[in-house]
């Protein structure tokens, strides 16, 4: 089945996890297929592919607030998505796309799939535009997620490295949400593709208590047997006097009711964090 899958953005955190799950899938990184190149996407050989998974994105949230980053974010997260939607429609492919909590302003305690877009940042706005384009595809699944952790540079690795160096970090304590390990996203993608519930948007994060980055850092240190101290700081104070900082949603918890109602069993983030740290 997985030989019918094509993964774009294959070298990112999610792309890497997808390639491990679907070893027979075809895939491309930026060098092989730059999805902002409309002609290259249109002329690409899509024969034999029935599912196109877009794990590519411009994910530098603060970089997107710069002159150059703003253009890149819109090119990759919106325009390029339109290129993919066009070929998906033309070749009768299901498109799987990944959205973010940053499409919301983070004022609701918990976000349902049908909440109206209210992005605070350039990244959030460009991702919202991408979601809108995908929602026009004949066959699509959008997985809306938050705080993704996989292979590569990410929050858990950074905090662990600081901890091992004996540094006691000051960490934001007023952004509340849940981690999403790429393993959970891959499980959810596989669930949607194999059980085929109605096309549409599905929130996917790990389950478990919603908490702050500071509390997650304490958990990382506890599970790793480190006794570093973590000091709380507000988002506003953390970014005070820093340039090109994107505004962040403070409440990022995504309701998991919809995907769970299709038979998907979410895994608690502490369980996946424990396994991640053991690796
Ligand atoms: N990371 C998070 O915390 C988070 C939270 C919520 C939602 N998401 C969403 O989850 C999805 C996966 O995120 P991730 O963390 O796996 O991202 P990532 O690690 O930053 O990977 C993104 C990938 O996209 C590729 N890419 C960028 N521009 C491209 C282009 N023009 N053509 C082809 N590929 C291109 C990058 O390749 P290069 O390295 O060559 O540029 C990279 O391999 C994204 O849609 C993201 O918006 C992420």
Write out key terms for the chains shown.
279 residues, Rossmann fold, two-stranded parallel ribbon, globular, binds NADP nicotinamide-adenine-dinucleotide phosphate
Instruction: Report the portion of residues in β strands.
Output: 15-25%
Report the oligomer: single chain
| Low-confidence sequence ranges | none
Cα-atom Rg, whole angstroms?
A: 19 Å
What does this structure look like?
- 38% of the residues lie in helices and 15% in strands.
- With 279 residues, it is an alpha/beta fold.
- Strands 2-1-3-4-5-10 form a six-stranded parallel beta sheet, with helices on both faces.
- Strand 3 (51-54), helix 3 and strand 4 form a beta-alpha-beta unit.
- It is globular.
What is this structure, in a nutshell?
The protein is α/β, with parallel strands linked by helices. The protein has helices at 13-21, 38-43, 67-90, 122-134, 155-164, 182-195, 213-223, 235-238, 257-260, 269-278, and strands at 5-8, 26-28, 51-54, 94-100, 140-145, 148-149, 170-172, 176-177, 180-181, 200-203, 211-212, 231-233.
């Amino acid at each position: 089945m997985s030989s019918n899958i094509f993964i774009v953005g294959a070298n990112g955190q999610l792309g890497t996890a997808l390639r491990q799950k679907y070893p027979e899938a075809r895939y491309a990184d930026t060098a092989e297929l730059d999805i902002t190149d409309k002609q290259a996407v249109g002329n690409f050989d899509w024969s034999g592919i029935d599912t196109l998974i877009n794990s590519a994105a411009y994910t530098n949230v603060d970089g997107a607030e710069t002159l150059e980053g703003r253009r890149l974010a819109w090119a990759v997260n919106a325009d390029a998505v339109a290129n993919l939607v066009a070929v998906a429609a033309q070749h009768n492919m299901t498109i799987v796309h990944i959205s973010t909590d940053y499409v919301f302003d983070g004022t609701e305690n918990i976000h349902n799939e049908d909440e109206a877009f209210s992005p605070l940042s350039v990244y959030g706005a460009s991702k919202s535009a991408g979601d809108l384009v995908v929602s026009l595809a004949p066959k699509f699944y959008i997985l809306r997620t938050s705080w993704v952790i996989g292979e590569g540079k990410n929050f858990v690795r950074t905090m662990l490295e600081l901890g091992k160096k004996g540094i006691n970090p000051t960490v934001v304590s007023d952004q509340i949400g849940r981690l999403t390990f790429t393993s959970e996203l891959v499980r959810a993608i596989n669930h949607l593709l194999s059980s085929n519930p109605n096309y549409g948007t599905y929130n996917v994060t790990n389950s478990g208590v919603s908490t702050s980055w500071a509390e997650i850092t304490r958990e990382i240190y506890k599970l790793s047997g480190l006794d570093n101290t973590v000091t709380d700081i507000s988002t506003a104070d953390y970014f005070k006097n820093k340039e090109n900082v994107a505004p962040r949603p403070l409440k990022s918890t995504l309701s998991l009711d919809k995907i769970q109602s299709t038979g998907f069993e979410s895994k608690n983030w502490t369980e996946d964090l424990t396994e991640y740290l053991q690796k």
